[in-house]
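[Q] Does anyone have a clean structure-token version of this?
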Amino acid sequence: MSATKLFERPGLVDMIDHIKTPIKGIVATESDRLSRDLFQFGWLTTHLSMHGVEIFLVNECKVESPSEKAFAKIRSVFSEFETELRQARIKRGVQLAKEKGQFMNRPPLGYRMQNKRIVIDEKTRPIVEHIFRLAQDMKSLRSIARLTGVSRSTVSFVLHNPFYIDKNWNGEHVIFVKK
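[A] Here you go.
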């Protein structure tokens, strides 16, 4: 399971936490916007129902009869299947690109694309090097962000991205970060 895990969805968790207040219902465009995981969707609908919270789906019929409930479960199975199929295709594409030494995404901070190759971006390289130096000095993400002028999420991405230390991670490239 990828980002469909319940606790990897802070907005959904926050919504569940707020059902302790008197909420009559929640609105979503379709059931797969709540979850594309069969068991998670079942838990979520049961949990909401136990708290008297109704789910209003704008683009789907209201589920009342046994056959409508069965169809809703079938739709959930196909949503999960679609997600898994898409993830398998992406994984296969990434693997093929790695085997060919191709890069699949936008290069991270400190790099850029040039003639379909990943090269060091001399304009942003100093920022990345500065982030790693500050992290070695045990600075917090917040202070590193303030000192480098980038967001905390960018600092976290840079520090946790294997691309900066593995020359074969998602395509071949030159490593400039000192360990």
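[Q] Thanks! Anything notable?
[A] The first helix runs from residue 10 to 17.
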